[in-house]
């Protein structure tokens, strides 16, 4: 394991964007070529280390392959409300691979009782199963009801009209 970077060099690399600034703030320790290389390495350590690992793997004869994501569909359910308390609205996003392919805007569920709400979610899943071959929700997010885009747009239009 390599030794830790000098804290002054680390501070200089993170806080001073140009070499002139670094020379001005730390004239006692700034050394032209060495500092330029060190500042770049400290600022971009993730990229530098990834390149170093890749080069080491090439020397050993190990080839790296790009990850291949299947173009399968997946669904994410967004629930606006407080977990285990109430549900304000339900939205759905369908992704194909990493790209958002379909989106259902939030549907307000005020006035629905729990069995009706569960049946609504089951009907959504049945529709996803027949249309896209999705048999379960990939992720379920609980979001703040104040962030509901439908309510925000209504408030915005009400403010404009008034």
**Could you say which overall geometry the principal axes of the C-alpha atoms support?**
elongated
* Low-pLDDT ranges: none
- The pLDDT mean sits at 83
Strand order of the largest sheet: 3-2-1-4
Give me the secondary-structure category. alpha+beta
Largest sheet: 4 strands, mixed
Topology as a string of helices (H) and strands (E): HHHHEEEHEH
Description:
With 162 residues, this protein is of the alpha+beta class. It contains six helices and four strands; from the N terminus they run H-H-H-H-E-E-E-H-E-H. Strands 3-2-1-4 form a four-stranded mixed sheet, with no helix packed on it. The chain is elongated and about 70 Å long. The N and C termini lie far apart (65 Å). The mean pLDDT is 83.
Indicate the topology.
Elements lengths: L6 H9 L3 H7 L6 H12 L1 H16 L12 E10 L3 E11 L2 E10 L5 H19 L6 E5 L5 H13 L1
Parallel strand pairs: 1-4
Antiparallel strand pairs: 1-2, 2-3
Helix pairs in contact: 1-3
Brief sketch in words of this structure:
The protein has 162 residues and is an alpha+beta fold. The chain has 6 helices and 4 strands; from the N terminus they run ααααβββαβα.
């Amino acid at each position: 394991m390599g030794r830790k970077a000098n804290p002054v060099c680390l501070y200089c690399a993170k806080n001073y964007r140009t070499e002139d600034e670094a020379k001005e703030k730390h004239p006692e320790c700034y050394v032209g070529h060495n500092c330029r290389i060190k500042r770049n390495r400290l600022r971009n350590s993730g990229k530098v280390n990834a390149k170093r690992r890749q080069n080491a793997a090439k020397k050993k004869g190990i080839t790296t392959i790009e990850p291949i994501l299947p173009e399968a569909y997946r669904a994410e359910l967004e629930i606006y409300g407080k977990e285990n308390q109430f549900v304000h609205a339900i939205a759905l996003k369908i992704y194909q691979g990493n790209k958002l392919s379909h989106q259902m805007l939030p549907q307000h569920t005020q006035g629905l009782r729990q069995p009706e709400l569960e049946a609504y979610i089951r009907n959504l899943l049945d529709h996803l199963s027949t249309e896209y071959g999705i048999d379960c929700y990939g992720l379920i997010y609980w979001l703040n009801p104040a962030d509901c885009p439908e309510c925000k747009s209504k408030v915005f239009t009400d403010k404009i009209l008034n």
